[in-house]
Amino acid sequence: MQANPETKFNSSSRWPTGRALLLALALVSAGSGVHAEGDEAKSILKAMSDYVSAQKTIELTFDSDIEVVTPQMEKIQFASSGEVLVSRPDKLRAQRVGGYTDVGLFFDGRTVSVLGRNINGYAQFDAPGSVDQLIEALRAGHGVALPGADLLLSRPYEVLVAGIREAKHIGRGVIDGVECEHLAFRNLDTDWQLWVQVGQSPVPRKLVITSKTVNSAPQYTLRVKSWKTGLRPAPDAFTFVPPVAAKRLSPDALVVLDELPPEAPTGEQK
């Protein structure tokens, strides 16, 4: 018996149509999941940003690691530790000690003083304004990268979400015994991960920045060891007094803030 061509066409065409429908539904479901996941990651990031920016004073200690890639494609990591004291809107004190530098920064709302203890020298320049303006001045005017400083801005969320192409809530992790929400974000040139403490004090505990445009994708890692708020800094906490016999340097000498030795390779662009 010869099959009806029309019947044969209709029955054979139903399966591809049904399969395509199922695939479309799966894609829509997956897309919705990714979108919801991104919204959740940004929601956690927003909660962290709102909490941090609401604190008038912050004192934290940190460890940091920065990777460089040699011409022989070998990754070398340099480690530092430090502490930061912020009093909003216009005072900051920071210190970082590594294997190559011992640097202190003092900002009293009018003048920036940078002390290189390892070279017994200091540099100063006028920078009246806020901590936000100081960070911008150091980056734009003096070439100091200050990775991680965005977390201390007065409106960090707007800066952190700018340029985000993809956001994910990975799940939870534990940093120094503290349970954290693990977030991952993708920008054009960098991927970055953030671990935010779970609970009523959603402070950042770890930040990892991966440079995608540099060969071998070196990373910068910042781990917040302690975090305190509600402090009452001493009146002279942000005052800089040059050490005896310290020599005054040009503001261009602010490169001593770098976490790398001067001769360290920084890797080539891809």
Write up what this structure looks like:
The protein has a 12-stranded mixed sheet with strand order 7-8-9-10-11-1-2-3-4-5-6-12. Strand 9 (190-197) and strand 10 form a beta hairpin. With 270 residues, the chain is of the alpha+beta class. The chain has helices at 5-53, 131-142, 156-161, and strands spanning 57-69, 75-87, 91-98, 102-107, 111-116, 121-126, 166-175, 178-186, 190-197, 204-211, 219-229, 247-249. It has a single domain (43-257), classed as outer membrane lipoprotein receptor (LolB), chain A (Clam), CATH 2.50.20.10. The chain is built from 3 helices and 12 strands, in the order αββββββααββββββ.
Task: Summarize the helices and strands and which ones pair or pack.
Blueprint: H1 5-53, E1 57-69, E2 75-87, E3 91-98, E4 102-107, E5 111-116, E6 121-126, H2 131-142, H3 156-161, E7 166-175, E8 178-186, E9 190-197, E10 204-211, E11 219-229, E12 247-249
Parallel strand pairs: 6-12
Antiparallel strand pairs: 1-2, 1-11, 2-3, 3-4, 4-5, 5-6, 7-8, 8-9, 9-10, 10-11
**Percent of residues in beta strands?**
35-45%
CATH topology-level name: outer membrane lipoprotein receptor (LolB), chain A
Q: Evaluate the radius of gyration.
A: 25 Å
Helical residue percent band: 10-25%
The main β sheet shows up as: 12 strands, mixed
Q: What would you give as the CATH superfamily? A: Lipoprotein localisation LolA/LolB/LppX
Mean pLDDT score, rounded?
85
Distance linking N and C termini: 67 Å
Q: How many helices in DSSP terms?
A: 3
Order of helices and strands: HEEEEEEHHEEEEEE
At CATH's second level, what is the architecture? Clam
Question: Biggest sheet, strands in spatial order?
Answer: 7-8-9-10-11-1-2-3-4-5-6-12
- The geometry reads as globular
Class derived from helix and strand content: alpha+beta
Number of domains: 1
**Number of extended strands:** 12
CATH class: Mainly Beta
Indicate the low-confidence ranges by residue numbers.
1-17, 28-32
